[in-house]
Design goal:
It is built from 11 helices and 10 strands. With 287 residues, the protein is of the alpha/beta class. It binds glutamic acid (GLU).
């Protein structure tokens, strides 16, 4: 199977060091396998999308030398595909309307299936995908190891929001399949979403990509990266030192002699030396 990877940012805030680590990890894994690397803008949440943000992201990635293959895809232009997938879930009886208020949901923690058998009220409703309570989704993550998530604990996931926007979990599954993504490399904050995504792939008879969840960025001493550092927009003028730092955070051990080099040289070195194994370190969330 040819390697096809992707970076799928949401243009709801500028790229920062954590985003660079995710972008670089997926880029290097794709390129070192001789694979393609696609760029997808996850811009379905129109209330949170910031004007000009997607264009800035593209410029930033280019200034870091992270060139993608083919045209950028925008989820906002692909809603017909999500509608079709949703239709299939509806036809299979796998969705239900949920009128729970935000407050009701907040009090409940994980969604306990309140509306599975309750007639929706008069107000706007979301659509949820009914998970199989008896199933534990298992997968081998290339970094995190053997993972298992009980769907009962995850609860029924929203696939269409009450404002009728398609939800991330549905769109990501449809796009990964339609774009032929073989390998998802992304931040570990999305590790537990993978259980829902696999359940949706199975319900829609879509292929399952391989997954690798990169540990979240921490300070060299292991402390959580300060919020300010996490949210500082990447400075295109400092591409080379930031790439060096991202390579260090990805445990690739770049030599000091690489420090004064250009972003292009750094990426060349990193493609030739990329080892996903090293990223694993001590931080494993599964298995
Ligand atoms: N758009 C998601 C985010 O920016 C990432 C989606 C993914 O990599 O699956 O958090």
């Amino acid at each position: 199977m040819p390697y096809v990877g992707r970076f799928a940012p949401s243009p709801t805030g500028d790229l920062h060091l954590g985003s660079l680590v995710a972008a670089l990890g997926s880029y290097l894994d794709a390129r070192s396998h001789g694979g393609h690397w696609l760029l997808r803008m996850e811009d379905l949440d129109t209330a949170r999308v910031l004007p000009g943000c997607a264009a800035r992201m593209l410029r930033t990635l280019e200034s870091f030398g992270l060139h993608w293959d083919g045209a950028v895809t925008y989820q906002s232009a692909r809603t017909g595909h999500y509608a079709q997938a949703l239709e299939r879930l509806n036809a299979a009886g796998l969705t239900f309307e949920c009128g729970c208020s935000r407050r009701e949901r907040a009090n409940q923690g994980g969604y306990p299936g309140t509306c599975r058998s309750r007639a929706p009220g008069a107000g706007p409703t979301a659509l949820r995908f009914r998970v199989d309570d008896a199933r534990t989704v298992r997968f081998t993550d290339r970094i995190q190891g053997e993972c298992g998530f009980a769907l009962r604990e995850r609860g029924d996931v929203i696939v269409r929001r009450r404002d009728h926007a398609f939800a991330y979990q549905l769109a990501v599954v449809v796009d990964d399949a339609l774009q032929g993504i073989s390998d998802v490399v992304r931040g570990a904050d999305l590790l537990d979403s993978t259980a829902w995504q696999i359940a949706l792939q199975d319900a829609l008879a879509l292929p399952r990509p391989r997954y690798a969840h990169l540990p979240l960025v921490v300070e060299p001493g292991g402390a959580k990266l300060a919020k300010s550092r996490r949210s500082i927009p990447l400075d295109p003028g400092a591409a080379a030192p930031l790439l060096y730092e991202a390579l260090t955070l990805l445990k690739q051990d770049p030599p000091a002699t690489l420090k004064p080099e250009s972003a292009g040289r750094m990426l060349e070195w990193a493609c030739a030396h990329w080892e996903l194994e090293r990223v694993r370190g001590a931080a494993r969330s599964c298995g």
